[in-house]
Specification:
This protein is mainly alpha-helical. It is built from 3 helices and 2 strands. The longest helix is centred in the last third of the chain and has 10 residues, at 56-65.
């Protein structure tokens, strides 16, 4: 039987500045990663100059998918 692991993402979205503070990444580097499609962001919709928020849920799923585990969302 496989064990169940619960992963809680306390902040599904983080403003760009907070993400950079927590990870130690420079803001310009993070902007480049976003531009290259390597760092997922929350869609801004019609607000093209709106707040950039990093999608932490997508990053978590990406990291988990690189492991040899089965995922299911509930």
């Amino acid at each position: 039987m496989r064990p169940n692991i619960t992963i809680i993402i306390p902040d599904p979205y983080l403003p760009l500045a907070e993400y950079c503070r927590r990870t130690g990444l420079k803001i310009e580097t993070a902007r480049n990663l976003i531009e290259y499609g390597k760092l997922p962001i929350k869609p801004k919709g019609l607000q093209k100059n709106g707040l950039i928020e990093i999608n932490m849920a997508a990053l978590t799923v990406q990291a988990l998918s690189e492991c040899d585990i089965a995922l299911s969302a509930q």
